[in-house]
Amino acid sequence: SDEDSLRLFKPASLQEMQAEEYINNHPLALELRANPAFKESRPTLKLREDLRTSSLTSGVFAGPGRIVVPPVMFVEEGGKSSVVIMYLGNEMCGYPGMIHGGVLATLLDEGLARCAFEALPNKLAMTATLNINYRKPSPADNFVVLRARTTKVERRKAWVEGQIETLPKTPEETPVVLAEATALMIEPRQAEVRGKFMSD
């Protein structure tokens, strides 16, 4: 469940503890947590434990130097929008010191899909199309925010748009958009397979 996913992660290193504290106490997280229209979870921890190590985002991408702590996600009711806060480490680079564009593409793919989940009848979707525009280099060892919004839903189809941007350090700071994307997500006809790999 969403609630269970929030209790599963226990920081083990100083970097994990610092990242965890920063995300949980950031004004953006506090604002969304106080909004009853949003529910909070850690989606990578909702995958069944025995499947996490073979998952790209729950396994390969997770850990020190990579996605340091499990991303925290806030989803608006009905999948209208979502916000994900995460920390990207220095082992996810293409050019030294800059996050690989393929990493950003994967995060956008998954982030937009998870927003669409809540807008579809069986809470599952596969990517049909994904279009990405890279706007600025993404420095490693930084916090980022992935924002997504469902723009249209027709039966098993959901159209979603979103972006990855920097997480402002102060309320006065304006986020920098790093990459933008649009996607068409389609719920598979065999949507009942979801129960085979989700822990809830």
From TrEMBL:
Keyword NAD: no
Swiss-Prot/TrEMBL keywords: Isomerase
Cleavable signal peptide: none
Domain of life: Eukaryota
InterPro entries reported for this sequence: HotDog_dom_sf, PTE-AB_protein, Thioestr_dom
Presence of the UniProt keyword Isomerase in the record: yes
Coiled coil segments of this chain: none
Limits of the Thioesterase domain: 97-165
One Pfam family named in its UniProt record: 4HBT
GO molecular function: isomerase activity
Name of the protein: Thioesterase/thiol ester dehydrase-isomerase
